[in-house]
């Protein structure tokens, strides 16, 4: 089973947020339910990393957030991100019940703040590298983040646009 970023986000969204380990288990279960298929661990790891890079998934450390802190060993949660169009893969809709994981409620303000910081870090890298393609991409992502969470990225967008003009 090869999952797209949107399918990863769809599985994550079923739970509200999951640890990476839980996501891997959920996808393995969904693949098995789909005629005994299996998951290529290396391909899945690469797909998760790419989804994080593209903001289809975002990391969320629940810290003091009691509603979301019921994670395994304090691992950060993966959450469907601002660029995702979550799509639940076939045979995955019952995975939360099979894995017996309750839907987690997340602090949207804290999630937005963490995603804002992640975007700022990515912008710093793109500006330093003068990566025109990444600068343009991050401008688009900044609008997605603002629509997705209660954050203001106007200053970062201006910085990215200025870097494009240099």
Key descriptive features of the protein:
166 residues; single chain; 7 helices; mainly alpha; Arc Repressor Mutant, subunit A
Question: Which regions have little confidence, pLDDT < 50, spanning 5+ residues?
Answer: none
Separation of termini?
44 Å
Q: What class would the helix/strand composition place it in?
A: mainly alpha
How do the strands line up in the largest sheet? 1-2
Mean pLDDT value = 89
- Output the number of helix runs: 7
InterPro entries: DUF7109
Pfam family, one: DUF7109
Structure, explained:
- The protein has two domains: 95 residues, Arc Repressor Mutant, subunit A (Orthogonal Bundle), CATH 1.10.10; 58 residues, no CATH class.
- The chain is built from seven helices and two strands; from the N terminus they run H-H-H-E-E-H-H-H-H.
- The protein is mainly alpha-helical.
- It holds the Pfam family DUF7109.
């Amino acid at each position: 089973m090869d999952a797209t970023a949107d399918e990863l986000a769809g599985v994550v969204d079923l739970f509200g947020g999951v640890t990476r380990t839980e996501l891997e288990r959920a996808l393995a279960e969904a693949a098995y339910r789909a005629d005994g298929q299996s998951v290529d661990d290396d391909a899945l790891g690469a797909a998760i990393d790419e989804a994080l890079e593209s903001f289809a998934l975002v990391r969320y450390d629940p810290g003091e957030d009691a509603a979301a802190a019921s994670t395994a060993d304090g691992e950060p949660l993966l959450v469907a991100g601002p660029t995702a169009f979550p799509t639940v893969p076939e045979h995955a809709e019952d995975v939360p019940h099979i894995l017996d994981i309750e839907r987690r409620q997340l602090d949207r303000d804290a999630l937005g703040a963490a995603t804002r910081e992640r975007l700022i870090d990515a912008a710093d890298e793109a500006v330093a590298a003068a990566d025109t393609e990444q600068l343009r991409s991050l401008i688009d992502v900044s609008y997605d983040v603002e629509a997705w969470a209660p954050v203001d990225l106007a200053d970062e967008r201006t910085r990215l646009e200025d870097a494009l003009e240099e």
